[in-house]
Amino acid sequence: SVARLAHPRVGAAAAWLPDVGVAVAGGSDTAPGLEVLTPGGSLAAVRAFEPDPVFGAAAVPRGGGQLILLGGYDGATPAPSRALDSTCIADCEPQLLPIGVPARLGGCHAFAASADEALLVGGDADDLIDVGAASSAMIRAFSVRFVAEEIAEIELREPRAGAVPVATPHGLLALLGGAHRDGTAAVTVELFFPGGV
């Protein structure tokens, strides 16, 4: 079977919300800011949020159908962190959060490390290196604590671009592959855990 979004999007954020479905946000300056695909559905239903052109953000599920958007950017401006209520039907507005990412991060991935903390990994759009015939963004990582409203950067032991974050079966986050600034391959694996790397 095929399931479709109601509107085309580029660089949108998506996450599975328990008891709601797949929520997809951003990535369009004309479409409603959020749409939800319920289990078994074939077409996503839009929510009445204003269009959200943010590219490359990550989405983190929170309780009660809430979706937290972290990272991403709109043109030359880093996107603010914000919360969206996926159950809202009319006159919906995002709630701005005081935990903004201090960089234009694209291709973001976010992982819930606990009920209060998320790990965010993305490529710095203002720090690119040449890798072969293409450019790749240097990876940056952040720990985000929702209750304390704190965000802190986690320094990589081996700075790299183009690496892939992967959740492990043990609840950790592994950063695999990528390239150093001089173009040589990064062959180590870095493991993230709540509060450090």
Produce a short descriptive summary.
By secondary structure, the protein is mostly beta strands.
Could you walk me through the main structural features you see in this protein, from its secondary elements to its overall organization?
With 197 residues, this protein is mostly beta strands. It is built from no helices and 17 strands. The protein has strands at 13-17, 21-25, 34-37, 45-47, 58-62, 66-70, 73-74, 77-78, 82-85, 95-96, 105-112, 117-131, 134-145, 150-154, 164-167, 173-176, 190-192. The strands form 5 sheets. The protein has a 4-stranded antiparallel β-sheet with strand order 1-2-3-4, with no helix packed on it. The N and C termini lie far apart (40 Å).
Descriptive terms for the model:
197 residues; mainly beta; four-stranded antiparallel β-sheet; 17 strands
Secondary structure elements and pairings:
Blueprint (H helix, E strand, L loop, with lengths): L12 E5 L3 E5 L8 E4 L7 E3 L10 E5 L3 E5 L2 E2 L2 E2 L3 E4 L9 E2 L8 E8 L4 E15 L2 E12 L4 E5 L9 E4 L5 E4 L13 E3 L5
Antiparallel strand pairs: 1-2, 2-3, 3-4, 5-6, 6-9, 7-8, 9-10, 11-12, 12-13, 13-14, 15-16, 16-17
